[in-house]
Amino acid sequence: MPLNAPTVADLDEKALLALIFPRLGADTALLGPGDDAAVIAAPDSRTVISIDTLVQDADFRLLWPSGYRTTGFDVGWKCVAQNVSDIRAMGAVPTSLVVSLTLPGSTEVKWVEDLADGLAAGISALASERCSVVGGDLGRGSQIVVTAAVTGDLEGRAPVLRSGARPGNILAHIGALGLAAGGLAVLESSFDMSDPGEAGDQELAGLVMAQCRPRLPRTGAGPAAASAGATAMLDVSDGLVRDAGRIARASGVGIDLDAGYLRTRAASLAPAAARVGADPLSWVLGGGEDHGLLAAFPPDAVLPEGFVRIGAVHDGEGVTFGGQAPPATGWDHFAG
What share of the chain is helix, strand, coil (3-state, %, to 5)? Predict the structure, then answer.
C-alpha cells in the first residue's frame, strides 16, 4: 500500500458512496440508487433472479504466490461475469445488479473505486444495455466480500431449465474451456506475474487474465439458444463434468462427452500446462469459472452461432467421457 494512501476507514459511508456511484455508468432503473430500494421494469411480468458471492481468500487472493495483486477492477468484472452468466443460462437478458460490499477498514479507497470501474466495464462488455447497478449495501468486516443479486427479463420466452434434456438430444457448448483453470494454476505458481503485461510468458499471462477477468460468450448466446429450442442449459462455473452432471441428474438422463473433441481442446493448452506441471485435460473437464454455456438441443436443431457439439444425451445416468469414467470432475465449494 502506498504511504498515506486513504483507506475506507478515513471516510464515512456517505463519502464512500459519493465516490462509487459516479463510476457505475448510466442508471437503467425506473428508480435507482438513493432510496431504500430500487424500482426496475418487468415488461415480461416475470423476473429471473440469481445471486453470487466472491469472498477474499476463498474466491480470490489479494496477493497470489506468483506476485499478482488482485485489483478491485478484477473483482468487479468477475462479479458481473458470474452473475450475468447465470441469467443468460436461463435464456434471459440481464437487467439489473444490486451489490453488497463488506470491506475491512484498511481497504484502500482506490481499490474500491477500481471495483466500481470493474462493475461498470463488466456490465458494458458482458451484460446488456438494459443492465446497471441499481443499488446495494456497504458494511465493515474482517475480509472483502462482494455479493451481487442480478435480475433478468425472459422477453416472452420460456425459461430454459436444467431438467429438460431428453435421450437423443445433442449436447453443445459455447465459450472457453480450461482457460480460467489454467489461470488459477499460474496464479498459484512461482512464475512472476506481478505485472502480466510485462511478463516474459504472455501465454501464461493470458491465462491469468482469463481467471481474473473472464470473457463470456457473445451477449445474446443464452437467448439465442432458447430461441433455437434448447431443452436444458446452465452456466459452466464449476467444471464441465460436474455441471453436465447437474443436467443429467435434473433431467434423469445420462450424458456422454465427446472425448476426441475435448482432447483436441486440451491439446491447445498443453504447452502452458507443461510449464506449470499440470494436465490440460483436467483443466478442460474439471476447471470452472470460464462461464461458458452448456445446453441440450433436439437432434434436428440448428445450433446457434458459436455453439459446438461436445456430446450426446442418452438413457442412463451420470456423465461419461467417451463411454468411460471421466478423469476429472470439477470444483466443490465444501470439499476438503
Answer: 35, 25, 40
